[in-house]
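Troubleshooting log. The previous structure file for this entry was overwritten by mistake, so regenerating from the original sequence record. Sequence copied from the archived sheet and checked twice against the printout by T.R.
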Amino acid sequence: MAPTTTDAEIASQPALWRRAINEAPALAPTLLAPGERVLVFGCGTSAFVAQSYAVLRETAGLGWTDWAYASELPRTVGYDRVVALTRSGTTSEVRAALDRFAGVARRVVVTAVPGAIAAQADEIVDLEWADEQSVVQTRFPTSLLALVRAGLGEDLTAAVAAAEQVLAAPLPVVPEGFDHFVCLGHGWTVGLAHEAALKIRESAQAWAESYPALDYRHGPIAVAAGRTLVQVFGDVPPDLVADVRAVGATVLDQPVDPLAQLVTAQRVAVRLAASRGLDPDHPRNLTRSVVLDSSPN
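Regenerated output below.
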């Protein structure tokens, strides 16, 4: 199958992460707001990025940080700042959530299309340079996480190099050999695990699950078997890996930065889609943005 737009956008990520590193110092005060009580929210991929974002900020000691699906906001906790993640700027639930915080908290919107949502924002973080043609998100969310991590002072040189390496190398597994995919993370990489599983469901219409790593043994491992591929993101205990292998599943545990591991998961999703005769540029039942006639309050 000929390379797709999604393939090209996956391959563009290392260059965009370098740009994110360069822009991080100027954007960190808006994105990270030390000492403030912050809520980060989004839908779909953006909700999972919000989860990782929140854990990274709070772990860095910058203050109370919650995350939420835009359609399921906390109702009792006051925030100084809310950060809405929306690639398109048109997602109905995000716009409704921003309306709820008008005049209550400072509203920051991270988007690739600032003109679509500027009227509902007090501040805009413009990531037009990471926008995508694809319905399925790849480079926009990873560029945002690179921006957050660099803003927290992380040196992402190795992460960029690792992404280039995994893009240049053959896939470490043959996705067609599996019909069950599991993604596991710990700490901020739980959000990455959820995002990786979503990529497989969206692109390849395959059975994909995701969990906090240590919770996997509390029930979900019961369905693991010989055609199960378990990919881990970040560090997980060796005894967990041993337990997964003991039930016959294959474990993919690359010794590289978690964002580079996510690049591998994106490639797995696209390869699996192609093997099933599917076009990842046009996933079934999906559009670039979900715009509803009405949104929940």
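The chain has two domains: 5-151, 157-275. Archived copy saved in two places this time.
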